[in-house]
Amino acid sequence: MGALGGLLIIPLRRKLHESPYWLMAKGRHSEAEAVMVQAEQRTIQRQGNLPVSDRPDIIQHTAVPPRTFPPQAYSQLTFRTW
Is 61 within a domain? Predict the structure, then answer.
């Protein structure tokens, strides 16, 4: 009975694509892009054009130097969370 579940998953496995996030994490950028393009094309076929995003493609994170915050803020925050 347990093997039946394993046999049922085989056809499903062929239809499932790797996660684009996982592919990017493994350095397989072109494959991740291809998976995303295919997903977008399927969505366009089913629902029409995709809405345009107003978010930037790349978000730059900047480090904040520790001296930006006064030492009092650190001590108060530490005291409150303790």
Answer: no
Note the pLDDT of residue 34. Answer: 94
What range defines the domain where residue 31 resides? 11-48
pTM above 0.70, yes or no: no
Counting Cβ atoms within 10 Å, is residue 29 exposed (0-12), middle (13-18) or buried (19+)?
Answer: exposed
| SS3 call for 7 | helix
H-assigned helices in the chain: 2-15, 20-25, 29-47, 71-81
Q: Is residue 73 part of a domain?
A: no
Domains held by the chain: number: 1
Q: What pLDDT digit, counting tens, does each position of 40-60 carry?
A: 899 889 988 878 877 777 777
